[in-house]
Amino acid sequence: MKANILEAADKPLAYKDAEKPTPGTGEALVQIKAAALNRRDYWITIGKYAGIKYPTILGSDGAGIVTEVGSEADKHLVGTEVIINPGSGWGDNPNFQSDDFKILGLPADGTLAEYVKVQAQHLHAKPAHLTWEQAAAVPLAGLTVYRALFFKAKAKKGDKVLITGVGGGTGAFALQFAVAAGCQVFVTSGSGEKIERAKQLGAAAGVNYKAQDWAEQLLHLAGGFDVIIDSALGDGFAKLPDLCNPGGRIVIFGGTAGNIPELNGRKMFWRQLQITGTMMGSPDDFKAMVDFVGEHKIVPVIDEVFPMANAAAAVAKMENSSQFGKIVLTT
Ligand SMILES: NC(=O)c1ccc[n+]([C@@H]2O[C@H](COP(=O)([O-])OP(=O)(O)OC[C@H]3O[C@@H](n4cnc5c(N)ncnc54)[C@H](OP(=O)(O)O)[C@@H]3O)[C@@H](O)[C@H]2O)c1
User: Fold this and answer.
1) Residue 68 domain boundaries
2) Are residues 147 and 272 in the same domain?
3) Number of domains comprising the chain
4) From the CB of 105, is ligand 1 less than 6 Å away?
């Protein structure tokens, strides 16, 4: 089979022959129809990720058809159309993952290939209303923001929600999920064009985080927020507690813009704020997310579709965050 292989630090992915995997007990082989990128793939290709090993086939998001299984009990899966939960080894505690938690596409070979081998228990029926490209866009970002919004922040109808950096793959899902849940959603972005697109997807308003007074603008527009979903951190994070209503919840899961600067803790305890981290999600979160996508007929925002052979160019596009939504690859 052909696959996109990470061969060394700072070297673009190489699309070349790789051994087609054979499913063992409890495993399934999925013929990939479409895969999608996450910023994780970019971090790995520039060497900024823990536990990088060479060679590895990257890719956490994928959708395709089961062609082989390793166990008689999973025979019924052959021929089914699936999406893959990229997280394995979550463990028993819904509040956090176990030490065995792993993400598909490092250390195990991932979805940027013609075939991927996964545990059969991580397969879910492809949402019927989605194309292959759209379905492939769902797993990692959908899971992460579903848990961030609903498990961690307990976002509910009528809440005022702020999504920072809406143009990212997670940002666009967070907007769509929060709108579907009946929240009033505001966004930030580094691009006026992306703010306009966010409004078309249901955002009430947005501001450019590059403006000096972006936080004041938001306060003027929204008053204050019950929930903030942030994956940027960086200098702008210091303003987020100021934007919260009493009892506000800030959920973080990434650090695209750097680390958290000095914060005024007094505001946080006086307003009873919570700042909480989250990490992808449990198998139950994944199932609930897929059900939510089906129930609300969420159609992921796709920025661009590349041929699988061109994954190196697709990853390079993530460098300057020019995308809006997910970058997808098709076989
Ligand atoms: N822990 C987890 O489970 C988990 C899961 C998924 C992602 N992540 C992390 O979360 C982050 C986002 O992932 P992704 O896949 O959505 O990445 P992505 O598609 O590359 O999006 C990154 C977005 O960050 C925004 N951004 C950049 N600088 C910003 C700033 N100063 N303030 C606010 N926003 C800023 C940009 O938004 P605009 O384009 O609108 O300007 C950009 O589109 C990454 O760091 C990723 O590693 C973690």
Assistant:
1) 2-138+300-330
2) yes
3) 2
4) no
pLDDT digits (tens, 9 = 90+) for 163-207: 999 999 999 999 999 999 999 999 999 999 999 999 999 999 999
Please say whether the beta carbons of 32 and 309 come within 8 A: no
Q: Is 201 in the pocket of ligand 1 (CB under 6 A)?
A: no
Does 242 share its domain with 317?
no
Q: Is the dihedral of CA 47, 49, 50, 52 positive or negative?
A: negative
Ligand 1 closest atom vs CA 235:
31
147 and 250 part of one domain: yes
Query: Which token pair is 318?
Result: 């993530």
152 CB near ligand 1 (under 6 Å): no
Q: Do 112 and 14 have their domain in common?
A: yes
Closest residue to atom 11 of ligand 1, CA basis: 254
> Which amino acid residue places its CA nearest to atom 39 of ligand 1?
167
pTM of the model: 0.97
Written as six digits, the tokens of 103 are 């993400």
Give the helix, strand, coil percentages of the chain, each rounded to 5: 30, 25, 40
pLDDT of residue 1: 97
Question: Domain check: are 67 and 167 in the same one?
Answer: no
Q: Is residue 285 part of a domain?
A: no
For ligand 1, mutation pick of 140, 231, 250, 327 (most atoms within 8 Å of CB): 231
Give the CATH number, domain containing residue 118: 3.90.180.10
